[in-house]
Amino acid sequence: MKKAVWLIGFVLLIISFLFDNKIINFVTSLRTENVTNFMIFITSIGFLFVLFVSYSFLLRNHKKVLLLILSIALSYLIGFILKLLIMRDRPDLALIYEPTSSFPSNHAADIFSTLTIMNKNFQRYIYLFFIMALLISFSRIYLGVHYTSDLILGGFLGYGIGLIVINLGDKKWKKN
């Protein structure tokens, strides 16, 4: 099953490169003032809210909090390094200023890295976190600061890093 998810992600990434401009042009053509305000809220405050809620759920176990922080930090760091190496320009349709390159999306990487840890620890809330991760990711396209491929790679990057961090944490603490 896990291999199928990665294969689907790879196929989606390749397809998204072909249609990146068409997708962003379509999504940004749907802009309205109210939705734009909501998406700005989601991409900034909403992102921080999801991370805060994630931390709040995990505060009872310091080891889990450390895994969450490590996952977010690694996702951000690897995403930032990739941005510096790839240097993909952002779309021309941006409603908000973003100073770095576009590919991959650090918002998607960070939020999907929290998703893996939340799924392991709080499976009954996974749909809530998945919907928030998708909404935050979609807000980046809507606001014109990312292409679909940026989000797909960022999401899978974060998800993969989250899985690695969980596995490393499980191995380390099972030895103790």
Give Rg in angstroms: 16 Å
Task: Give the number of helices.
Answer: 6
Number of strands: 0
- What order do the helices and strands follow? HHHHHH
Give the N-terminus to C-terminus distance in angstroms. 31 Å
Shape: globular
Largest sheet: none
Helix content, binned percent: over 70%
State the secondary-structure class. Answer: mainly alpha
Average per-residue pLDDT, rounded, comes to 83
Percent range for β-strand residues? under 5%
Runs in which pLDDT lies below 50 for 5 or more consecutive residues are none
Please explain how this structure is put together.
The protein has 176 residues and is mainly α. It has six helices and no strands. The chain has helices at 2-29, 33-58, 62-86, 106-121, 126-142, 148-175. Helix 2 packs antiparallel against helix 5. It starts with a helix and ends with a helix.
Could you outline the blueprint of secondary structure elements for this entry?
Elements: H1 2-29, H2 33-58, H3 62-86, H4 106-121, H5 126-142, H6 148-175
Helix pairs in contact: 1-6, 2-4, 2-5, 3-4, 3-6, 4-5, 4-6
Brief sketch in words of this structure:
By secondary structure, the protein is mostly helical. The protein is built from six helices and no strands.
Q: Notable features of this structure?
A:
176 residues; globular; 0% strand; single chain; mainly alpha; 6 helices
